[in-house]
Amino acid sequence: MRPRITYQSGNSILHCLHPLVKGAWMLFGTVLVFVVPSPWVVLAVLGLLLLVFPLVGLHLGRVRGVRLFVTTALLLGILQILFVRHGPVMIHVGPLSVTAGGAEAGVYVAARFLSVVFLSYLFVLTTVPNDLAYALMRSGLPYRYGFALITALRLVPIFEQEGQIVYSAQLARGVGYDARSPRRFLTLARQFFLPLLVSALGKVDALSVSMEGRCFGKYPTRTFLREVHFTRRDASAAILLLVVVAATVISLAVG
């Protein structure tokens, strides 16, 4: 079973970086691959991201969902190659022809899609949800919204595990998931989501009772068990980001 898309412990620089600085880098990378018109720059960003994963101790091939996203990127690239018709023809086989513009568009779209996905992976896999919520609340976000964010991040893997339990339990009881008609599919979906919904409501009810017992929301401010401090390393990363952003804007304006 592949690891879930959640925080993976580690001691790399990226793991120890302040969540807001890390989020700013992710936002910059996402905007960069959309505003830069050159596919080679996007490919360079993608290659750099693929190098970062082993450097921070993460195995990208073992993370759940990677194969699906890679397949989706390939399909997007193939669609661009087949339907974009500008530039000189590179390959011509019967009614199909591949142009230089189509190949360039295919590489650009596929690399951009994977870059955005891998940036998100890096942020999620190296950021503790509690640290992210604390950093947002220290920056001015009301702690009610911060608690909602961290609760959502923590409940996603729990509900995923509950779904696996329901699925395995139904298989043990002889439920067949080889749906061959829309009606059968709807029946299976109802049989699957009903116990999952009941389990989710039970956990939410227990969480609300626990919050009431701890007087959640009574005071305008709250204390934290673990605090995230802004260090010199974070300041250096923030300054480097500003320099890179300025250089990128200047290069785009000149180009």
Distinctive features:
255 residues, mainly alpha, 2 domains, two-stranded antiparallel sheet, flat
Characterization of the model:
The protein is mainly alpha-helical and 255 residues long. 69% of the residues lie in helices and 4% in strands. The protein is built from 9 helices and 2 strands, in the order ααααββααααα. The protein has helices at 13-16, 19-35, 39-55, 66-83, 100-125, 129-138, 143-172, 182-213, 232-254; strands spanning 89-93, 96-99. The chain has a two-stranded antiparallel sheet with strand order 1-2. Helix 2 (19-35) packs parallel to helix 9 and helix 6 runs antiparallel to helix 7. The model has no long low-confidence stretch (mean pLDDT 84).
Tell me the total number of β-strands.
Answer: 2
**Strand order across the largest sheet:** 1-2
Uncertain runs: none
Which structural category fits the helices and strands?
Answer: mainly alpha
Question: How is this fold's topology laid out?
Answer:
Layout: H1 13-16, H2 19-35, H3 39-55, H4 66-83, E1 89-93, E2 96-99, H5 100-125, H6 129-138, H7 143-172, H8 182-213, H9 232-254
Antiparallel strand pairs: 1-2
Helix pairs in contact: 2-5, 2-9, 3-5, 4-5, 6-7, 7-8
